[in-house]
Amino acid sequence: MSVGDHHRPKASGRSLYDLELALKDKAVRQALARPIHIDRTWDIPYLAGYSKDGRTIYIDRHLPSMMEVGSRKINPTPFLLIHERTEKALIDGVRYEYAFAHELATGAEERAVRRKGIQPAAYEKALHPFIKDDEAEPLLRVPADLDLAPYEGEEALLKRMKRAQQHPDRPGKVTKASVHYSQGMPSRHCGICLHFVKPHSCTVVLGSVSPSMWCERFKRDGR
């Protein structure tokens, strides 16, 4: 959940100090180093989120790739990635509670924004129109593997999100025939592919897939 979440603690000088300490932890560094896939084809409340395994970062499909912040045009994606990857790494690596991990991740995001010469207040103002957090904002499709822990306590929103998770496969996926889906090999099969989602799904191929099969979109999971 990005800096656009106004229901959580904001960053402080103390949080940046704690962040630097946490980033020295080996498990946190390993979590930050894992390869990720960026998916911009879903409705994501508060602009961005991550899959349960941390391998996919979801960015809301309506957020533009370039936006005006004051007199400048910027790409918000790098800042959102810093937030989501840091937050998930802190939760997975050192088992921080979500609220604290979110505060530290907000500090990392705001620091990156300032380093680009942008005021965080102006950055948040530019993001705010795109935030989906109430009944007025439609949620048509939400990824089935989106980590819902950041939304705990917002029962009405969670209910809408879970309902949207029942939507069929996302647009943009390819057919099995188009990528020559076929029997895999010991060194190349769906079960060890970055795009595979247990037990029988894929982030890029339509329909159910088997761990023993293979296709041309294969990319070995770096774990």
Distance N to C terminus: 24 Å
Largest sheet, strands/sense/barrel: 3 strands, mixed
Number of structural domains: 2
Determine the fraction of residues in helical runs and give it as a percent range.
25-40%
Query: Helix count?
Result: 6
Number of strands: 9
Look at the structure and give the mean pLDDT.
87
The proportion of residues in beta strands is 5-15%
Categorize the overall geometry: globular
CA-atom Rg in angstroms: 18 Å
Unreliable residue stretches: none
Main features:
223 residues; alpha+beta; 2 domains; 3-stranded mixed sheet; two-stranded antiparallel ribbon; 6 helices
Structural write-up:
The protein is of the alpha+beta class. It folds into two domains: 13-164, no CATH class; 177-214, no CATH class. Helices cover 32% and strands 13% of the residues. The chain contains six helices and nine strands, in the order H-H-E-E-E-E-E-H-H-H-H-E-E-E-E. The protein has helices at 13-22, 26-33, 77-94, 98-115, 120-127, 155-164, and strands at residues 37-42, 48-50, 56-60, 67-69, 72-74, 182-183, 196-197, 201-202, 213-214. Strands 1-3-2 form a three-stranded mixed β-sheet. The chain has a two-stranded antiparallel ribbon with strand order 4-5. The chain has a two-stranded antiparallel ribbon with strand order 6-9. A hairpin with a 3-residue loop joins strand 7 and strand 8 (201-202). Helix 3 (77-94) packs antiparallel against helix 4. The radius of gyration is 18 Å and the shape is globular. The protein starts with 12 loop residues before the first helix and ends in a 9-residue tail after the last strand. The mean pLDDT is 87.
